[in-house]
Amino acid sequence: MIETAGGGVEAGEDLNTAIRRELKEELGADVEVLCKIGVVSDYYNLIHRHNINNYFLCKVKTLEDKHLTQDEIEDFHLSTLKLGYEEALVEYERCRCTSLGRLVANREVPVLKRAKKLL
After folding, report:
1. Which of 8, 11, 41, 119 is the most exposed place for a label (fewest CB within 10 A)?
2. Region for residue 3 given its phi and psi (left: phi exceeds 0; alpha: psi -120 to 50; beta: otherwise)
């Protein structure tokens, strides 16, 4: 299952600060936020959680070491996967056979297509 990098907004953070912090932690990427792509609201029924996802188009300035938490490593098995646009679309479609895969693809694919149009 693939998802775009991201996470929560901490107390006192604005969205631009949060996305820059999350990308630094999860990818080791220092980024310039170019624009907001949009917002997606979804529900993870398996864990009874409502998510409000803010998506941004960012330009990577530098890549360094990532700083994942133990939970991200042990519980979520986060790793980095670099895919081109077409490869990502194929992978999202491949994962649609499960309810979680369908949820993720329904959320991520329209955002990916919007980002391509913006570029």
Report:
1. 11
2. beta
How many C-beta atoms surround the C-beta of residue 100 within 10 A? 12
* Tokens encoding 67: 């700083």
- pLDDT number for residue 48: 85
Asked if 50 and 41 count as a contact pair (C-beta separation under 8 A), the reply is: yes
From CA 14, how far away is CA 50, in angstroms rounded?
Answer: 20
- Beta-carbon contacts of 7 under 8 Å, excluding residues fewer than 6 positions away, are 18, 22, 25, 26
Express each pLDDT in 26-81 by its tens digit: 889 999 999 999 999 988 777 788 989 999 999 999 999 878 777 777 777 777 78
What is the Cα–Cα distance from 30 to 20, expressed in whole angstroms? 7
pTM: 0.83
Helix, coil or strand: residue 3: coil
Q: Give the ranges where the chain is alpha helix by DSSP (H).
A: 15-27, 70-74, 85-94, 99-118
Beta strands 29-44 and 49-63 are antiparallel
